[in-house]
Design brief:
By secondary structure, the protein is α+β, with helices and mostly antiparallel strands. It has helices at residues 2-5, 57-71, 73-76; strands at residues 11-12, 21-31, 40-48, 85-91, 96-97, 106-116. The chain is built from 3 helices and 6 strands; from the N terminus they run αβββααβββ. The two termini are 26 Å apart.
Length: 117
């Protein structure tokens, strides 16, 4: 992901420079079942460009898709005793172009993440 974003320090829970930047946050949907086994919360990936408009819309879309594909590697990671196990990741819906009110470029994508406690 760092290569696609242009270097380290560009992934966090807030939209901040340096640009482009990937924000990872809770999504609006998902399936929490009975909150005890195999919940599938939604995680939203948001990729932001510079407020000046770069990189362009197509490049930001490419970056977001690279980051989403890279997230699939979490499924193959070895489990750590006492920590949740992520056994599945899949898109929850559409890829959305959603620039901010001030024109700052942004793409959004929801991922459903299946988690075993």
């Amino acid at each position: 992901m760092a290569d696609a974003l242009g270097g380290p320090g560009r992934v966090s829970g807030i939209a901040e420079a340096p640009w482009p930047h990937l924000r990872v946050t809770h999504g609006p949907g998902g399936d929490l079942r009975d909150l005890t086994w195999a919940t599938t919360p939604e995680v939203t990936l948001e990729v932001y460009g510079d407020p000046g408009g770069w990189p362009g819309q197509a490049e930001l879309r490419r970056i977001l898709l690279v980051c989403a594909a890279a997230s699939m590697e979490i499924i193959e990671a070895p489990s750590v005793p006492g920590k949740p196990v992520i056994s599945g990741i899949r898109p929850s819906g559409t890829l959305v172009w959603s620039p901010l009110i001030d024109g700052q470029p942004r793409w959004l994508l929801g991922l459903l993440v299946t988690v075993h406690p």
